[in-house]
Amino acid sequence: MDKVSPEERSRVMARVKSENTKPEKTVRSLLHKNGFRFRLHRSDLPGTPDIVLPKLKTVIFVHGCFWHRHPGCKKASTPVSNADYWNRKFAGNQARDAQNVAKLQEAGWRPIIVWECELRDLCALEKRLTSLLRRRV
């Protein structure tokens, strides 16, 4: 059973940001520090990627483990109350993510997913991103 009223839950969920989140800003900072220049939230690309590196024809999505269902991550838990709703919501998110990745690849873009939990080890994330991106230069 949910411990708050439906109205309160709705108010809380409405405050969840989709752009310029702390994880996204952290990834942008790592990229900028390593000399990569990028654009943000290009709405003309499928899924409106969080970070777009046009010269490298690469996009980066910074996904929250809960919302995008990071496989094997403890942050990808399903709420107990209203589980049917949440399962439909998560399935829709995952289907939309897969569709956006496929569309981007068809258009010649290379999508990279950064999971929120990867930010716990910034050194490893920085190595992964720079390795992936330097291969494109």
Helices and strands in order:
Elements lengths: L5 H9 L7 H12 L5 E2 L10 E3 L4 E6 L1 H4 L14 H24 L3 E6 L6 H13 L3
Parallel strand pairs: 3-4
Antiparallel strand pairs: 1-2, 2-3
How do you describe this structure in short?
The protein has 137 residues and is α+β, with helices and mostly antiparallel strands.
Describe this structure in words.
The model has no long low-confidence stretch (mean pLDDT 91). The protein has a single domain (16-134), classed as VSR Endonuclease (Endonuclease, Chain A, 3-Layer(aba) Sandwich), CATH 3.40.960. With 137 residues, it is an alpha+beta fold. The longest helix has 24 residues, at 83-106. Strands 1-2-3-4 form a four-stranded mixed β-sheet, with helices on both faces. It is built from five helices and four strands, in the order H-H-E-E-E-H-H-E-H.
Features:
alpha+beta, 4-stranded mixed β-sheet, Endonuclease, Chain A, 137 residues, 5 helices
What is the strand content? 5-15%
Output the structural class. alpha+beta
What's the CATH H-level superfamily name?
A: VSR Endonuclease
**Order of neighbouring strands in the sheet with most strands:** 1-2-3-4
Largest sheet: 4 strands, mixed
Summarize the helix and strand pattern as letters. Answer: HHEEEHHEH
| CATH structural fold name | Endonuclease, Chain A
Number of helices: 5
The CATH architecture category equals 3-Layer(aba) Sandwich
**Rounded to an integer, what's the Rg over CA atoms?**
16 Å
Range of helix content: 40-55%
Number of domains: 1
